[in-house]
Amino acid sequence: MQNVVAIPANPALVNSTEDFLHAVEHDRKDSAEKFIHMVDHLTDRILSLFLVEPANMTELSGGQKKVIDFAVSTAGKASSMLTRQIFKKVSNAEFAPVVKNVKAMYWQAGDDNDNHASIAFPVEDSFAADFRKATELCAAGKGTEDVALVTRVMSAMSDKIIDEVFVANTKEVKIGFVTQKALNVGIDGSRKAVHAVNNKVLKDLSDDELKGYMAHYQGLLRQR
Questions:
Q1: Domain boundaries, the chain
Q2: 177-208 pLDDT per residue, tens
Q3: How far apart (Å, rounded) are the C-alpha atoms in residues 3 and 176?
């Protein structure tokens, strides 16, 4: 057993993941399109998890909500455009290392995960220990005593998801210089957007609100 971050997969993400794997397995011509659809659903899930849902847990001004809405819209469009640019001409043979990554991350519904499929990847024991410390602190109603720890682990978690779920697959295919530069800008912008929301939202939460906030995320760390 090892510590993993497991992102619960909604039906659209489950279906699109299985469609992609099935397409490559049967050497179909629409594998690239299936992969792009899968990443689009994955992007929507991650943006909701780390930008939309935390923003809904606190009172934000109209201006702050607009900033988050803009970040979600921009990140979603950029991800979709870059994914299409990078993967649209990838052959089934070239998809082999990507398929290996996706299969490793796709934790199908079963007895070992409460019959809820997820996208999962291993994390360091040191991160898991810090994350558990933050969740326990918040659960005890003492989150404001070390809100810096809570902010740090949530930002670290979002960085790990960006790296393991999105960036890893781009390293398995050939990318031109211009596209790579655009990808780097998009990744950096996504990190900054999530960090900015974390920094803004978390520092203003009460102990009770932090308790609810971390209760929302504590299930992401599991053993597999």
A1: 3-223
A2: 999 998 998 888 888 888 887 888 888 889 99
A3: 35
